[in-house]
Amino acid sequence: MIKRVVFENFKQFASFDKPLKASGITIVAGGNNSGKSSLLHGLAVWEFAKLFIELEKGRTALNSNYNGDGIGISFDDFTPINIPSLKYLWTNLTGLNGYQLKIKCFWDLPGKPDRFLEISFSLVSERLYMKNTSSNLAIEDKIPVIAYLPPFAGITDREPWYSVADRRKLLGRGLGGSILRNTIIDMFQQNERRRVQLKGDNQRISKTALRTLRETDPYEKLNQVLFEIFKIQLHPLNFNSNFHNYVRVELSKGEIVTNRYVPFPNFNKRDIMVEGSGFLQWLSVYTYALDRNIDVLLLDEPDAHLHTSLESVLFQKLADLSSENNKQVLMATHSSEIIKRSDPKLILKIQRNQTTYLVNEGQKVALISGLGSEYSPILNKLQVHRKVIFTENESDWGIIKEWFRATGVPLPNNIVVWPNTFKHDQRKQLFIQLREAIPDLKGISIEDRDNLLYEETTTTLQQNGFPDWINGDGFLRYRKWRRWEIENYLIHPSSIARAANVDENAIRQFIQDNFGIIINGNFIQSDRIDITRLLFDIEGKILLNAIERHFNINKHQIAHVMIDAEVFDDARTLVNEISAFSNL
């Protein structure tokens, strides 16, 4: 399919020339305004122009050595993508005259050199002209059929029956929603004809033939996946073009009983359009992915209306389908779930100054964390200060700042805090990617101990067997709380009592009655002894949540009233290290 695309003066790309994986699924990812949609839009515009030229001037107008004039179209008739004016197709809205906007696609054909077709555009008096300006096509060469599906915006309540040519035209204009029922009914009718052929003169289809049909037929596979995910089956209504003006597809919900689908008795069939956006998004994407008339499917944020739990399922289904049917799928997404679960070699990272497929997991971590956006505020600050601290969330840093206040140590203003839920090894991969742009970057990664054994920690908060990563002038230090999590360092009866405005004995008694813990001895020390064992190993969030509910306070109020004598040894160790770190 499409193995290389070249843009000149198209939207984000004044110049763009990149290879694409010619089959299977490609995840197009990057920051906001990086050009993800522009890549898909360029291919959609190329498809629209190719189809329009062929319909108006014939197939020969796309072949090599064609020297005819361009053909014009008004803004109202230009529908592949949504733009306020035709001039927004051009980079910086300049160079509108003289066919200076060009989109060129290369694809492979068995037994032949790569085929290519370049279509150029010019804007004259609010009319868009387009023509073939470079091609090596012969009349018999197949040209890929591309379908662009923007974020789903619903379907019409009355959908006419369209001819195959009209459907191609509407799909080429990015109007997949307006022919969704047509496509489903077409699949259904092909399935019905196939069943008649397989049955022949017999009373029923053989088990072997029926199994093969269910494994390969697009309509069968569509209903299978809809039942698997939504417990839904489609029911296209009988359509006869001699009597009916509109087509209808209804759905039911049910269950499998003795290997047969049985609708729920109290569920009345209804038109597909009344279902939620998530279902319609899935139905639209998967229907066109199964359509054998489409070679290349462009999906612009197909996860937009989907719950997180369905995002990765959609990706896996599309990946399997594209592999089985030799279909090319380009899927632009912001979904971190999809990116996390994808092979990095399937991810095309789009940036203004660099567009490339990833090669390792480290690059994927960096992309998820926002490295793909060159205007990220965090990155801008890092380039200035060159020091980063990774915390598990912003709340943790809020507590650490209160310990600076309590101990009287000045809070550094030259450190960038980057909250994320990654573990040390993932943060290392992100850090290495950051160092490509900031060679002398230094960092500290702070983690809760969670299930790690206490014996694997030290009074310096370094983890046994997990040495700091050092490279040249840069380093990443790994620090692990000795107690279960950062909230354990707020379990101080005096601080809690002050925040709740109650007697300290009431706090001690509440903890003893509800958690069986008697707080005595030097419980703020770094080393664990028998009388402090439970305070080290209990999940601090659980205990603090109980205190917050009972005394109507929160953990940040507790941290805010802590004084120097109430700061735990481990917290003091970290405060001092961060202070020294800021002076490097």
How would you describe the overall organization of this protein?
The chain has 584 residues and is α/β, with parallel strands linked by helices. The chain has 3 domains: 2-161 and 281-359, Rossmann fold (3-Layer(aba) Sandwich); 178-277, no CATH class; 376-584, no CATH class. The chain has a 6-stranded antiparallel β-sheet, covered by helices on one side.
Layout of helices and strands, plus pairs?
Elements (H helix, E strand, L loop, with lengths): L1 E9 L2 E7 L4 E6 L6 H22 L13 E4 L26 E9 L2 E13 L2 E9 L10 E4 L9 E2 L3 H9 L7 H20 L7 H10 L1 H13 L1 E5 L9 E2 L1 E9 L2 E4 L6 E2 L5 H14 L5 E5 L7 H18 L2 E5 L3 H6 L5 E4 L4 E3 L3 H8 L8 H9 L1 E5 L2 H14 L8 E4 L4 H14 L4 E6 L21 E3 L2 E7 L12 H8 L3 H12 L17 H5 L2 H12 L3 H7 L7 H14 L2
Parallel strand pairs: 3-16, 3-17, 8-15, 15-16, 19-20, 19-21, 21-23
Antiparallel strand pairs: 1-2, 1-5, 4-7, 5-6, 6-7, 9-11, 10-12, 12-13, 12-14, 17-18, 22-23
Helix pairs in contact: 5-6, 6-7, 9-12, 11-17, 13-14, 13-17
> Main sheet, how many strands, which sense, barrel?
6 strands, antiparallel
Q: Tell me the overall shape.
A: globular
Q: At CATH's second level, what is the architecture of the largest domain?
A: 3-Layer(aba) Sandwich
How many discrete structural domains?
3
Provide the structure class: alpha/beta
CATH homologous superfamily placement of the largest domain: P-loop containing nucleotide triphosphate hydrolases
Tell me the helix content: 25-40%
What integer value in Å does the Rg equal?
31 Å
CATH secondary-structure class of the largest domain: Alpha Beta
Low-confidence stretches: none
Please give the order of strands in the largest beta sheet: 2-1-5-6-7-4
In terms of DSSP E residues, the strand content is: 15-25%
Q: List the total number of helices.
A: 18
Mean pLDDT: 88
* Oligomeric grouping of the chains: single chain
Which fold name fills CATH's third level, the topology of the largest domain? Rossmann fold
Number of strands: 23
N/C terminus separation = 54 Å
